[in-house]
Write a structure and sequence with these properties.
mainly alpha; Brnchd-chn_aa_trnsp_permease; 227 residues; 12 helices; 75% helix; membrane; single chain
């Protein structure tokens, strides 16, 4: 098989993502069908949107009948970190040719973490290794979310608290970021901004306002954060 070595290496590297995406994708599919949405919406969202955190948030957007402008703004802020991921991988994706659009599309938090921690293997065709890594990770997510949606559409049980899986995901990401940065100040800014918005801002605008406040405070205290 052509590029079998790249595929084998990509699968080996992606096993930790497999373990996480199957479980978290299952939770997403289960949560989606618990709100009486058809099961096939889960794989469609996972194929064409493929943004774990945003997909969880989208369920609440649908239920609250949030306007398109609010959804667009919130989506942009939730996924704005991907822009910085892409900038740091410009050199790696430079010679990927026609594969580049998908490599950009498939750049999730976990895929980025793998790409930035593994060492380049000169025996591999890198662009196809990157391709297989992105495809496998998305496949795990689609598989998990589809299975969860199918189970949820046929078996009814109490899903109370399942939406906390999104919060748990962000908590884990937050802890990992703190381990890398070793700087508590940005996290305190986020905490203060969130508490302020939670108390004084209506719930449907709370997320956007808290992000705006965090950004303003980050710029205002830029020198302190950098130190």
């Amino acid at each position: 098989m052509i590029y079998s070595l790249e595929l084998k290496k990509a699968f080996t590297v992606s096993i930790p993502v497999l373990m996480g995406y199957i479980v978290l994708g299952f939770a997403f599919g289960l949560l989606l069908t618990s709100f009486q949405y058809p099961w096939y919406l889960a794989p469609l969202m996972s194929i064409f949107i493929y943004a774990g955190a945003l997909q969880f948030v989208a369920i609440n957007f649908f239920n609250a009948k949030v306007g398109f402008i609010d959804i667009a703004i919130a989506s942009w802020f939730i996924n704005i970190r991907q822009s910085f991921y892409g900038l740091s991988l410009l050199k790696r994706f430079k010679n990927s040719g026609k594969l580049k659009p998908y490599l950009i599309f498939s750049l999730t938090d976990e895929t980025y973490a793998l790409l930035t921690t593994i060492k380049d293997d000169n025996t591999l065709n890198r662009k196809y290794f990157y391709l297989f890594l992105g495809l496998l990770n998305q496949f795990y997510w689609v598989l998990g979310s589809t299975f969860g949606a199918l189970v949820g559409s046929h078996i009814k049980f109490n899903t109370a608290g399942l939406e906390f899986s999104l919060t748990a995901l962000f908590v884990v990401l937050c802890i990992e970021q703190y381990k890398n940065l070793k700087n508590i100040f940005p996290f305190l800014i986020g905490l203060v901004s969130s508490i302020f918005s939670l108390i004084f801002i209506p719930s449907d605008k709370m997320l956007i306002v808290s992000i705006f406040i965090s950004l303003i405070m980050m710029f205002f205290f830029k020198k302190g954060i950098e130190k």
